[in-house]
Amino acid sequence: LSVYRTVLYRTISYYTGELRSHQPTDRTPTNQHSTACKMQSQQGSVLLRRHLCKRLSDYYSQPSNKVVGSIDYGFISRIPSGIRSCDAAKVSHHPQSASRTRMNRTINFSSLWGEWHWRRTYKRVYAEQQGMWLTPCELFTPYYSNILANFVCNSMKTSLNNLEELQVDSGGTFEIVELGGGRGTNANALLNYMKENHREMYDRLDSYTIYDTSPTLHELQREVLISINDEVRVHAHKIKLVNVDLMNIAEGSSPFLTQSNIPTAVIALELLDNLPHDKIGRCIESRNILQAEALSGPTTMNSLKLKICESFVPLEDKLLHDILSMAPALYAPLVSQGPKWVPTVALGVLLALFDCRPNSSVVFADFDWLPPPDASLGPALAEPAEGDPLITDMTGKDHSCYLTSPPDALCDILFPTDFGRLAAFVGQITAKSQCQIPVSVLSMKQNEFLLKYGKSEVERTRSWLTGYSPLIHDFANCSVLEVSPQ
């Protein structure tokens, strides 16, 4: 099924590429909807990524149990183990309002009778979970995090040894940074595994810092990782929590990491898909690059109700300009291609990371493909673009584009990531950075990464009967960016 949907998507992309021929001209909106709105509106416009940032911030300001899901382990103990990821896309689910205490149990994947068993029992488990979606970290705890711990220890040990040979003073310690820490599940499981299986590296770990935009998840991480009701957590002395908008870090308006040669392992799990993007096009007449903006205006001449429209104007944003100047072949569109989305915030964060921590290792895991919205939802009001996101509201309803959902509706906005382009961009960063250690920059399917660093953990998730492992056989549309010392 996953292969079929991938082939179908590629076919759709091939033919819709021929339809994306309508090009904007300088300071001219891209379609009739924008034209009408611009004539009526006397209000200003905002860069599209800032509009999306506001919507995502509202979404992630909800109570934590309504956003990132967690498994009801008490429920799992009453049924055969198994969960399904629905073709590895984040599947919307009306959130459960009840609060449950998590039990210290894991799913016994080896008891599965095969793929059919996994998919059947998933429906029952997913119906009981809290939040809008479940991540691999939550589904496959602790195995997924154990594999990440192996990567961290392997890369940090190599970095420390290389710096020692080069007589570069790093203090003999390292740091871990997680961008978007979710419920704190990954941090807790990873540190548990390090303490039990890599004690020397655990002792050399200076700190584990989580940067998160969501205030509610930030508070949950404090309870899970530091203390709750005067109970101090076991890894509390390693944990630092920072509540900050990653867009501000990308733009340089909020502080990030201190300048240092200390080896730093940076983890981001299903973060890239939720970071604000920019949409750009190229003027068909002048061939200048244009940036998309969100324009608010009344729905009719006499209406007080506002709607959001899309408009293209000449490129002015500094971050976008810097990225496109650095990698025009990767992200600048051709006139014949139509508009495209650029992961501006992700690229800006990576630029900031290697500027202050040149000896960093990176593992970013996310979706390389997402299913398009249901065609029955109607035509999109925004200009179609390469990398269009999937928009899902809190009722589980999909929308054809970000303009079709109400401006104040709480929506999850999911972008697919082109990992080949991302790796090429990071390769350019590391080539110009002050890194004392040569690094390799790779993009690979997630199952390749998991087998590379955790074959024994993968074996623990295989069916006793068929050898099927949802850890590597499901989530087929996920990839990993790996930056590690050579």
Q: Tell the overall outline.
A: globular
Distance between the termini: 37 Å
According to DSSP, the number of beta strands is: 17
Helical percent range? Answer: 25-40%
Task: Calculate the mean pLDDT score and round it.
Answer: 83
- Beta-strand content estimate: 15-25%
Estimated structural class: alpha+beta
Unreliable residue runs: 1-42, 73-104
Instruction: Give me the Rg, rounded.
Output: 23 Å
**Describe the biggest sheet?**
7 strands, mixed
Number of helices: 17
Give me the side-by-side strand order of the main sheet.
Answer: 6-3-2-7-12-17-16
Features:
486 residues; alpha+beta; 5-stranded antiparallel sheet; 17 strands; globular; disordered N terminus
What this model shows, in words?
It is a single chain. The protein is α+β, with helices and mostly antiparallel strands and 486 residues long. It is 37% helix and 19% strand. The protein has 17 helices and 17 strands. The strands form four sheets. It has a seven-stranded mixed sheet with strand order 6-3-2-7-12-17-16, with helices on both faces. Strands 1, 8, 9, 10 and 11 form a five-stranded antiparallel sheet that branches. It has a three-stranded antiparallel sheet with strand order 14-13-15. Helix 7 crosses helix 8, helix 7 crosses helix 16 and helix 14 packs parallel to helix 15. The longest helix is centred in the first third of the chain and has 23 residues. The protein is globular. It starts with a helix and ends with a strand. 48% of the residues are buried. The N terminus is likely disordered.
